From TrEMBL:
<feature type="domain" description="F-box/LRR-repeat protein 15-like leucin rich repeat">
    <location>
        <begin position="717"/>
        <end position="841"/>
    </location>
</feature>
<feature type="domain" description="Gag1-like clamp">
    <location>
        <begin position="126"/>
        <end position="234"/>
    </location>
</feature>
<keyword id="KW-0812">Transmembrane</keyword>
<protein>
    <recommendedName>
        <fullName>F-box domain-containing protein</fullName>
    </recommendedName>
</protein>
<keyword id="KW-0472">Membrane</keyword>
<dbReference type="InterPro" id="IPR032675">
    <property type="entry name" value="LRR_dom_sf"/>
</dbReference>
<dbReference type="InterPro" id="IPR025124">
    <property type="entry name" value="Gag1-like_clamp"/>
</dbReference>
<feature type="domain" description="F-box/LRR-repeat protein 15-like leucin rich repeat">
    <location>
        <begin position="384"/>
        <end position="552"/>
    </location>
</feature>
<dbReference type="GO" id="GO:0019005">
    <property type="term" value="C:SCF ubiquitin ligase complex"/>
</dbReference>
<dbReference type="InterPro" id="IPR057207">
    <property type="entry name" value="FBXL15_LRR"/>
</dbReference>
<dbReference type="InterPro" id="IPR036047">
    <property type="entry name" value="F-box-like_dom_sf"/>
</dbReference>
<keyword id="KW-1133">Transmembrane helix</keyword>
<dbReference type="Pfam" id="PF25372">
    <property type="entry name" value="DUF7885"/>
</dbReference>
<feature type="domain" description="F-box/LRR-repeat protein 15-like leucin rich repeat">
    <location>
        <begin position="555"/>
        <end position="713"/>
    </location>
</feature>
<feature type="transmembrane region" description="Helical">
    <location>
        <begin position="7"/>
        <end position="37"/>
    </location>
</feature>
<dbReference type="Pfam" id="PF13259">
    <property type="entry name" value="clamp_Gag1-like"/>
</dbReference>
<dbReference type="GO" id="GO:0031146">
    <property type="term" value="P:SCF-dependent proteasomal ubiquitin-dependent protein catabolic process"/>
</dbReference>
Length: 852
């Protein structure tokens, strides 16, 4: 009996572990277990097995009772009772008496009654659904007793065997009463009316995301779904194969008729394939997989997986598992993994076709084991397949996210961004560009849940307007940088709210292509107390008044850099006001201003006290007078850059003898200004003696004589010279440069100087010992120049560009020698060098990047 009790306890543990899913998947779990155990027990001689399984109080409760009587090599049969579970646990294979005769004698009737009393007690302690089955149970018990005469005769050859007392059943009833208490019929719960209406359909009940009017018990919902599946005609669940391999197997599970002593209600259709082949050879198993389980079961299993390594392993099983793992919220996990409250350390960037929901789900599941995701950039295009599902996966799995960049993602909507804002509350930097479906709702969610936000950039988002950005300004006290570009719904209200609300923290402000006016600039000038960087671009409605008020507001005391691009309000008066009102201004850049003249440049130079860099681009009304007036008047100027200023003309000028030179200027850049020629260079040489960097590109008017005066007057020693596109320069000026500044020169660019020959390269190789970068592309050099560079002593050359030059395979040995110290080599468009030679060279100087 001890072994019987241990087996009984083992069966109870199996049913308890099955939990809430045992009822739904009875065919998958309960039937195979009952079938195997029944055969093993009956083969050992146990008399009967009684089991039931009930549902009470809306919660699934598995209860099992096993009663055994041991008769060696004999048994009466198996009686399975399944309560409220519309399935079958199994039935005996021994023959049953189907034609039960009515007992005629009184003693016979008493015997039947006594033998059925135990079973009747069991029914009386069960749930209310089986109360009316007592009579049927008594008749069933009598049929069993009368249908096994051979067995009774074997037990006692001379007389009838003693009456059997099922002690296991008695013990079970006592234990069950302790569990449930002494509940009489008066305390039994009334049948609850179904929560789902009889005429409910799948679309009406589950076709929307609205919550149910009242809670629906799980068994009732499962029954409803199974009925729906049956109506859909999903009959082929076994791929055209019979559910049962033999007739004997079908007898185990199918009803044998009303007169048999086992309760057999109508069975529901199974949703999964059975894991065993129900035949006499139980060792044979079907080749099944856990994927036959529905998502609900897998979800419950996977949410109990703890640890990043275990999750990563599960995610590697299949895409289905990966997607299920990505839907598990931290609150739904049995043991959520801790994350770094200061932010993650990983950086991930998905571009183009690689930007997919699957990759985002993988990042969300796997990054927790590697330090947590800190920065995520999704740079999409027309082929990108990223939706809100991917962002939700990141939100659930990456609470340590601090930086998010979304670019060119038309399928991303407010739902995904809102989920990120709700779950990733450590966000500090957000960039959203070309996402037309994102609206104010997303920004309001960020404002409400991300108090650590320091940087926000919005570009080309047509549905983002004043409401969302105003919420950002009011709710993000740590906001330091904001950029708004090409958002047509943004107006003056946004600028006013941002600047006034975050006046103590906002340091960088960029406004590009907005429909704002002078009011915004006035607010910036008065309340931008912490601003250090200001960019105003394509503000066509701003006038001279707005720029003047901004400069005169005395609120930009900490401003260090200002960039104004294509704003009609930038005039001489406005530029002068900026010079007065920004005492700490270090850099000013004015581009595409047609109203700025020499007077404004000179006036600004006189009133500013700290400006170090002036950049003028496409300012066509600025001439040579304004440039030299700036050099003379601004004593702190270090960098001057002129690009495409067509108003500059190369005219001779007389400089007064008492005029002091500009000693502070160290960098001069003049690009694509066709009027800048030899006279202008000569004047520069007389005024600027401490130049260290000279960039003169696209100046077709300068020659060796004009540049020589500038080169020779640079007393500090030049470190960088860029003369690309100056087609009239010859070897003479290169010789002068190498002789005067050979010891300090580090970068020399002669790209496109067609008159430069091998003589220039030989001079450079002999005199420029500090040279690190040399570009002689599209010049007249040959293999001899490469040989001269390779044979130079004390050479520090690291980058060499000979693109488009007349070099051949003869240079390969010298390039190999140079490759010992080169990190970059450009031999593009060198037709004399064969592809095989390039391949061989690449193998020999593998540490050098070669452009071919």
């Amino acid at each position: 009996m001890r072994s019987c009790r241990s087996i009984s306890y083992f069966i109870f543990q199996i049913i308890a572990v099955m939990g809430n899913y045992a009822r739904i998947y009875e065919l998958f779990f309960v039937v195979p277990i009952a079938y195997i155990l029944r055969k093993e027990l009956l083969s050992s001689g146990f008399r009967e097995i009684l089991c039931f399984y009930e549902l009470g109080d809306g919660k699934l409760k598995g209860e099992i009772m096993v009663s055994f009587s041991f008769y060696p090599n004999h048994f009466y049969g198996c009686k399975p009772y399944l309560l409220q579970n519309r399935g079958c646990l199994g039935c005996p294979k021994v023959p049953f008496m189907t034609n039960v005769k009515k007992p005629t004698g009184i003693a016979e009737k008493d015997s039947i009654t006594n033998k059925a009393s135990v079973v009747q007690d069991f029914w009386s302690s069960s749930t209310y659904e089986m109360d009316n089955s007592a009579a049927q149970s008594q008749l069933s018990a009598s049929s069993v007793s009368m249908s096994n005469p051979n067995l009774d005769g074997h037990c006692s050859s001379g007389s009838n065997p003693p009456e059997f007392v099922n002690r296991g059943l008695l013990l079970w009833n006592q234990t069950r009463q302790q569990w449930n208490g002494d509940k009489g019929s008066s305390h039994r719960k009334k049948a609850r009316e179904p929560a789902i209406s009889w005429n409910a359909t799948y679309d009406n009940l589950l076709g929307s995301n609205k919550p149910f009017p009242k809670s629906i018990p799980l068994p009732e919902m499962v029954k409803f779904l199974v009925d729906v599946w049956e109506e859909e005609g999903e009959d082929v669940l076994y791929h055209g194969v019979s559910k049962y391999q033999t007739c004997e197997d079908s007898d185990v599970f199918l009803s044998l008729g009303r007169r048999v002593d086992v309760y057999f209600p109508s069975c529901k259709r199974s949703r999964v394939s059975a894991p065993f082949v129900f035949s006499e050879q139980l060792s044979k198993k079907q080749q099944t997989t856990i994927d036959v389980l529905p998502d609900e079961c897998l979800f419950e299993i996977l949410r109990r997986v703890s640890g990043g390594q275990e999750k990563s392993s599960c995610a590697s099983v299949s895409k289905r598992w990966l997607m299920l793992l990505s839907t598990i919220h931290r609150n739904e996990q049995k043991k959520a993994q801790d994350f770094d409250k200061s932010g993650g350390s990983l950086t991930r960037c998905l571009k183009g076709k690689k930007a997919t929901n699957i990759r985002l789900a993988a990042i969300g599941v796997g990054s927790g084991n590697l330090g947590g995701l800190g920065e995520l950039s999704i740079l999409g295009n027309s082929s990108s397949k990223v939706s809100d599902f991917g962002l939700k996966a990141i939100a659930r799995g990456c609470p340590s996210l601090t930086s998010l960049t979304l670019w060119n993602l038309s399928s991303i909507k407010d739902e995904g961004v809102t989920e990120i804002a709700n779950e990733c509350r450590l966000l500090e930097k957000v960039e959203i560009s070309q996402c037309p479906a994102i609206s104010n709702k997303s920004l309001m969610a960020i404002a409400s849940n991300c108090p650590h936000l320091t940087s926000l950039s919005i570009e080309s988002c047509s549905n983002i307007g004043n409401e969302g950005l105003q919420a950002i300004g009011k709710s993000c006290p740590n906001l330091k940088s904001i950029s708004i570009k090409n958002c047509p719904l943004v107006g003056d209200q946004v600028v006013v709210s941002l600047v006034t609300s975050a006046s103590s923290s906002l340091m960088k402000l960029k406004l590009h292509g907005l429909t704002i006016g002078d009011m915004s600039l006035a607010v910036i000038g008065h309340y931008g107390l912490a601003l250090t960087d200001l960019v105003l671009s394509d503000l066509h409605t701003v006038t001279e008044k707005g720029v003047w008020v901004m400069g005169s507001g005395q609120g930009l005391q900490k401003l260090k850099s200002i960039v104004i691009v294509n704003c009609n309000g930038v005039t001489d008066l406005g530029l002068e006001a900026l010079g007065r009102g920004c005492p700490n201004l270090k850099q000013i850049s004015v581009k595409k201003s047609s109203l700025l003249s020499d007077n404004g440049i000179v006036a600004f130079a006189k009133v500013t006290v700290s400006v170090e860099s002036v950049i003028l681009e496409e300012c066509h009304t600025v001439t040579q007078l304004g440039i030299f007036g700036l050099l003379v008047s601004c004593g702190s100027l270090k960098t001057l850059s002129l690009t495409k200023c067509l108003g500059i003309q190369d005219l001779p000028m007389i400089i007064p003898s008492g005029l002091s030179p500009c000693k502070s200027l160290i960098s001069l850049s003049i690009c694509n200004c066709p009027g800048f020629g030899n006279f202008s260079l000569a004047l520069m040489g007389r005024l600027c003696h401490n130049l260290q960097e000279i960039v003169l590109t696209g100046l077709h008017g300068i020659k060796d004589s004009g540049l020589a005066s500038l080169i020779k007057n640079c007393e500090s020693g030049l470190t960088k010279i860029d003369l690309s596109g100056c087609v009239n320069l010859t070897d003479k000026i290169v010789s002068d440069i190498s002789m005067v500044h050979g010891e300090t020169l580090e970068v020399l660019n002669l790209d496109g100087c067609r008159s430069i020959t091998d003589a220039s390269v030989v001079t450079v190789a002999q005199n420029c010992f500090s040279l690190k970068e040399l570009d002689v592309s599209k010049s007249a050099i040959t293999d001899y120049s490469v040989a001269a560079l390779a044979c130079a002593e004390h050479s520090n050359l690291q980058v060499l560009s000979i693109s488009g030059c007349q070099v051949s395979n003869k240079s390969l040995p010298f390039l190999k020698k140079l490759g010992a110290r080169l990190i970059g080599l450009n031999i593009m468009q060198c037709r004399g060098v064969s592809s095989s030679a390039v391949g061989l060279l690449g193998e020999q100087i593998w540490n050098c990047d070669i452009l071919v």
